[in-house]
Fold:
Amino acid sequence: MLLSFIAGLGVPVTTTPVGVSGAVFLLPIQLTVLQVPSPAVTPTNLVFNIVAIPGALARYRIQAPLRSPLIMLLLIGTLPGVMIGAIARVYLVPGPHVFRVLVAGFLLPLGIWLCLPRASISMSPLREGPLPRSTTIANRTVVGVVGGIYGIGGGSLLSPILVGRGVPIATVAPATLVSTYITSAVGAITYLLLAIANPGSHIAPNWTIGFAAGAGGLIGGYLGARLQPHLPECTLRVGLGILATTTAALYLLQAVL
Structure:
Protein backbone atom coordinates (compact mmCIF):
# COMPACT_ATOMS: atom_id res chain seq x y z
CA MET A 1 0.00 0.00 0.00
CA LEU A 2 2.64 2.54 1.07
CA LEU A 3 4.95 1.76 -1.84
CA SER A 4 2.03 2.04 -4.26
CA PHE A 5 1.10 5.43 -2.79
CA ILE A 6 4.70 6.73 -2.96
CA ALA A 7 5.14 5.56 -6.56
CA GLY A 8 1.79 7.06 -7.52
CA LEU A 9 2.78 10.34 -5.87
CA GLY A 10 6.26 10.69 -7.36
CA VAL A 11 5.73 9.77 -11.01
CA PRO A 12 2.91 12.24 -11.89
CA VAL A 13 4.88 15.21 -10.52
CA THR A 14 7.26 14.67 -13.44
CA THR A 15 4.83 13.54 -16.13
CA THR A 16 1.66 15.58 -15.53
CA PRO A 17 3.19 18.90 -16.72
CA VAL A 18 3.40 17.39 -20.22
CA GLY A 19 -0.02 15.71 -20.18
CA VAL A 20 0.97 12.17 -19.18
CA SER A 21 -0.68 10.57 -16.14
CA GLY A 22 2.38 8.41 -15.44
CA ALA A 23 0.76 4.98 -15.71
CA VAL A 24 3.28 3.91 -18.36
CA PHE A 25 6.10 4.41 -15.86
CA LEU A 26 4.30 2.55 -13.06
CA LEU A 27 4.13 -0.75 -14.93
CA PRO A 28 7.70 -1.90 -14.09
CA ILE A 29 7.01 -1.26 -10.40
CA GLN A 30 3.76 -3.20 -10.55
CA LEU A 31 5.30 -6.15 -12.39
CA THR A 32 8.63 -6.48 -10.59
CA VAL A 33 8.07 -5.03 -7.11
CA LEU A 34 4.37 -5.33 -6.38
CA GLN A 35 4.02 -8.62 -8.27
CA VAL A 36 0.72 -7.75 -9.95
CA PRO A 37 -0.14 -10.68 -12.26
CA SER A 38 -0.69 -10.32 -15.99
CA PRO A 39 -3.05 -9.20 -17.46
CA ALA A 40 -4.45 -7.65 -14.23
CA VAL A 41 -1.64 -5.09 -14.32
CA THR A 42 -3.32 -3.39 -17.30
CA PRO A 43 -6.72 -2.59 -15.71
CA THR A 44 -4.88 -1.71 -12.49
CA ASN A 45 -3.09 1.01 -14.46
CA LEU A 46 -6.45 2.21 -15.77
CA VAL A 47 -7.82 2.41 -12.21
CA PHE A 48 -4.77 4.50 -11.30
CA ASN A 49 -5.59 6.90 -14.13
CA ILE A 50 -9.24 7.22 -13.08
CA VAL A 51 -8.33 8.07 -9.48
CA ALA A 52 -5.24 10.20 -10.14
CA ILE A 53 -6.07 12.38 -13.15
CA PRO A 54 -8.77 14.55 -11.48
CA GLY A 55 -6.06 16.06 -9.26
CA ALA A 56 -4.19 17.43 -12.27
CA LEU A 57 -7.40 18.50 -14.02
CA ALA A 58 -8.53 20.41 -10.93
CA ARG A 59 -5.35 22.49 -11.13
CA TYR A 60 -5.44 22.93 -14.91
CA ARG A 61 -9.03 24.13 -14.63
CA ILE A 62 -7.81 26.98 -12.44
CA GLN A 63 -5.16 27.93 -14.98
CA ALA A 64 -7.31 27.67 -18.12
CA PRO A 65 -10.63 26.20 -19.35
CA LEU A 66 -10.49 22.45 -19.95
CA ARG A 67 -12.71 22.62 -23.03
CA SER A 68 -10.65 22.29 -26.18
CA PRO A 69 -11.33 21.16 -29.77
CA LEU A 70 -8.25 18.97 -29.36
CA ILE A 71 -10.06 16.76 -26.81
CA MET A 72 -12.74 15.60 -29.23
CA LEU A 73 -10.09 15.19 -31.92
CA LEU A 74 -8.19 12.84 -29.62
CA LEU A 75 -11.23 10.85 -28.49
CA ILE A 76 -12.35 10.01 -32.04
CA GLY A 77 -10.55 6.76 -32.63
CA THR A 78 -9.02 6.28 -29.20
CA LEU A 79 -12.32 5.27 -27.55
CA PRO A 80 -13.06 2.33 -29.86
CA GLY A 81 -9.33 1.60 -29.97
CA VAL A 82 -9.05 1.14 -26.19
CA MET A 83 -11.89 -1.40 -26.22
CA ILE A 84 -10.24 -3.32 -29.05
CA GLY A 85 -6.96 -3.18 -27.13
CA ALA A 86 -8.55 -4.60 -23.97
CA ILE A 87 -9.96 -7.56 -25.89
CA ALA A 88 -6.62 -8.14 -27.65
CA ARG A 89 -4.81 -7.96 -24.28
CA VAL A 90 -6.92 -10.74 -22.79
CA TYR A 91 -7.28 -13.10 -25.74
CA LEU A 92 -4.29 -12.52 -28.02
CA VAL A 93 -1.26 -11.29 -26.02
CA PRO A 94 -1.72 -12.10 -22.32
CA GLY A 95 2.02 -12.23 -21.53
CA PRO A 96 4.03 -9.17 -20.41
CA HIS A 97 6.96 -9.40 -22.85
CA VAL A 98 5.01 -8.48 -25.97
CA PHE A 99 3.66 -5.34 -24.25
CA ARG A 100 7.12 -4.13 -23.34
CA VAL A 101 8.43 -4.59 -26.87
CA LEU A 102 5.32 -2.98 -28.39
CA VAL A 103 5.47 0.16 -26.28
CA ALA A 104 9.28 0.36 -26.45
CA GLY A 105 9.08 0.35 -30.24
CA PHE A 106 6.66 3.28 -30.06
CA LEU A 107 8.31 5.31 -27.30
CA LEU A 108 11.94 4.99 -28.39
CA PRO A 109 11.73 6.90 -31.71
CA LEU A 110 9.36 9.46 -30.18
CA GLY A 111 11.70 10.01 -27.24
CA ILE A 112 14.67 10.55 -29.54
CA TRP A 113 12.59 12.91 -31.70
CA LEU A 114 11.58 15.00 -28.71
CA CYS A 115 15.19 15.31 -27.56
CA LEU A 116 16.30 16.75 -30.89
CA PRO A 117 16.85 20.54 -31.08
CA ARG A 118 13.68 22.37 -32.09
CA ALA A 119 15.35 23.54 -35.32
CA SER A 120 15.62 19.89 -36.34
CA ILE A 121 11.88 19.35 -36.08
CA SER A 122 10.43 20.52 -39.37
CA MET A 123 6.82 20.45 -38.24
CA SER A 124 7.11 23.24 -35.65
CA PRO A 125 5.01 25.70 -37.75
CA LEU A 126 1.93 23.93 -36.37
CA ARG A 127 2.21 26.34 -33.45
CA GLU A 128 0.78 29.08 -35.63
CA GLY A 129 -1.74 26.95 -37.54
CA PRO A 130 -4.80 24.93 -36.68
CA LEU A 131 -4.79 21.86 -34.50
CA PRO A 132 -3.07 18.85 -36.11
CA ARG A 133 -6.02 17.26 -37.93
CA SER A 134 -3.50 15.35 -40.02
CA THR A 135 -3.37 13.03 -37.00
CA THR A 136 -5.83 10.65 -38.64
CA ILE A 137 -8.56 8.56 -37.05
CA ALA A 138 -6.55 5.46 -37.98
CA ASN A 139 -3.51 6.75 -36.07
CA ARG A 140 -5.59 7.60 -33.02
CA THR A 141 -7.24 4.19 -33.14
CA VAL A 142 -3.82 2.56 -33.08
CA VAL A 143 -2.92 4.71 -30.07
CA GLY A 144 -6.17 3.66 -28.40
CA VAL A 145 -5.44 -0.03 -29.05
CA VAL A 146 -1.95 0.28 -27.56
CA GLY A 147 -3.39 2.20 -24.61
CA GLY A 148 -6.02 -0.49 -24.05
CA ILE A 149 -3.43 -3.27 -24.22
CA TYR A 150 -0.99 -1.52 -21.94
CA GLY A 151 -3.31 0.31 -19.56
CA ILE A 152 -2.10 3.83 -20.25
CA GLY A 153 -5.25 5.32 -21.76
CA GLY A 154 -3.28 6.72 -24.70
CA GLY A 155 -2.01 9.94 -23.12
CA SER A 156 1.56 8.68 -22.81
CA LEU A 157 1.58 8.14 -26.57
CA LEU A 158 -0.52 11.11 -27.69
CA SER A 159 1.40 13.69 -25.69
CA PRO A 160 4.84 13.01 -27.24
CA ILE A 161 3.29 12.95 -30.72
CA LEU A 162 1.60 16.33 -30.30
CA VAL A 163 4.50 17.98 -28.46
CA GLY A 164 6.92 16.67 -31.07
CA ARG A 165 4.73 18.14 -33.82
CA GLY A 166 5.03 21.58 -32.23
CA VAL A 167 1.70 21.93 -30.40
CA PRO A 168 2.28 23.99 -27.22
CA ILE A 169 2.50 21.93 -24.03
CA ALA A 170 0.01 24.28 -22.33
CA THR A 171 -2.57 23.08 -24.90
CA VAL A 172 -1.47 19.44 -25.01
CA ALA A 173 -1.28 18.69 -21.28
CA PRO A 174 -4.92 19.28 -20.20
CA ALA A 175 -6.35 17.91 -23.46
CA THR A 176 -4.44 14.63 -23.32
CA LEU A 177 -5.24 14.18 -19.63
CA VAL A 178 -8.99 14.62 -20.26
CA SER A 179 -8.72 12.17 -23.14
CA THR A 180 -6.77 9.71 -20.99
CA TYR A 181 -9.34 9.95 -18.19
CA ILE A 182 -12.27 9.15 -20.49
CA THR A 183 -10.51 6.34 -22.35
CA SER A 184 -9.29 4.85 -19.06
CA ALA A 185 -12.85 4.72 -17.74
CA VAL A 186 -14.04 3.02 -20.92
CA GLY A 187 -11.10 0.61 -20.83
CA ALA A 188 -11.65 -0.27 -17.17
CA ILE A 189 -15.33 -1.04 -17.82
CA THR A 190 -14.31 -3.24 -20.76
CA TYR A 191 -11.89 -5.20 -18.56
CA LEU A 192 -14.54 -5.66 -15.86
CA LEU A 193 -16.93 -7.10 -18.44
CA LEU A 194 -14.17 -9.40 -19.69
CA ALA A 195 -13.48 -10.51 -16.11
CA ILE A 196 -17.15 -11.36 -15.61
CA ALA A 197 -17.09 -13.35 -18.86
CA ASN A 198 -13.93 -15.19 -17.75
CA PRO A 199 -14.37 -16.12 -14.05
CA GLY A 200 -11.25 -17.27 -12.24
CA SER A 201 -8.87 -15.40 -14.54
CA HIS A 202 -6.45 -12.59 -13.62
CA ILE A 203 -8.31 -9.97 -15.65
CA ALA A 204 -9.89 -7.82 -12.95
CA PRO A 205 -7.74 -4.98 -11.57
CA ASN A 206 -5.93 -5.11 -8.25
CA TRP A 207 -8.17 -2.56 -6.57
CA THR A 208 -5.93 -2.02 -3.53
CA ILE A 209 -2.86 -1.12 -5.59
CA GLY A 210 -4.86 0.84 -8.13
CA PHE A 211 -6.56 3.03 -5.54
CA ALA A 212 -3.42 3.45 -3.37
CA ALA A 213 -1.30 4.53 -6.34
CA GLY A 214 -4.18 6.66 -7.61
CA ALA A 215 -4.46 8.45 -4.27
CA GLY A 216 -0.78 9.35 -4.51
CA GLY A 217 -1.28 10.36 -8.12
CA LEU A 218 -4.17 12.61 -7.15
CA ILE A 219 -1.73 14.69 -5.10
CA GLY A 220 1.24 14.31 -7.44
CA GLY A 221 -0.85 15.25 -10.47
CA TYR A 222 -2.06 18.44 -8.82
CA LEU A 223 1.51 19.40 -7.90
CA GLY A 224 2.77 18.62 -11.41
CA ALA A 225 0.04 20.73 -13.00
CA ARG A 226 0.88 23.57 -10.60
CA LEU A 227 4.54 23.43 -11.63
CA GLN A 228 3.81 23.37 -15.38
CA PRO A 229 3.56 27.15 -16.01
CA HIS A 230 6.84 27.75 -14.17
CA LEU A 231 8.95 25.31 -16.20
CA PRO A 232 10.48 26.16 -19.63
CA GLU A 233 8.72 24.35 -22.47
CA CYS A 234 12.03 23.14 -23.88
CA THR A 235 12.88 21.55 -20.52
CA LEU A 236 9.50 19.81 -20.38
CA ARG A 237 9.78 18.56 -23.96
CA VAL A 238 13.30 17.19 -23.53
CA GLY A 239 12.38 15.76 -20.12
CA LEU A 240 9.49 13.85 -21.67
CA GLY A 241 11.83 12.63 -24.41
CA ILE A 242 14.35 11.35 -21.87
CA LEU A 243 11.61 9.59 -19.89
CA ALA A 244 10.22 7.96 -23.03
CA THR A 245 13.66 6.86 -24.24
CA THR A 246 14.74 5.51 -20.85
CA THR A 247 11.49 3.61 -20.38
CA ALA A 248 11.76 2.11 -23.87
CA ALA A 249 15.35 1.01 -23.20
CA LEU A 250 14.35 -0.63 -19.91
CA TYR A 251 11.45 -2.48 -21.53
CA LEU A 252 13.66 -3.76 -24.35
CA LEU A 253 16.27 -4.90 -21.83
CA GLN A 254 13.64 -6.71 -19.75
CA ALA A 255 12.25 -8.37 -22.87
CA VAL A 256 15.70 -9.60 -23.90
CA LEU A 257 16.52 -10.89 -20.42
Remarks:
- The longest helix spans residues 169-197.
- Residues 120-131 have pLDDT under 50 and may be disordered.
- The CA atoms of residues 56 and 222 lie 4 Å apart.
- The chain has ten helices and no strands.
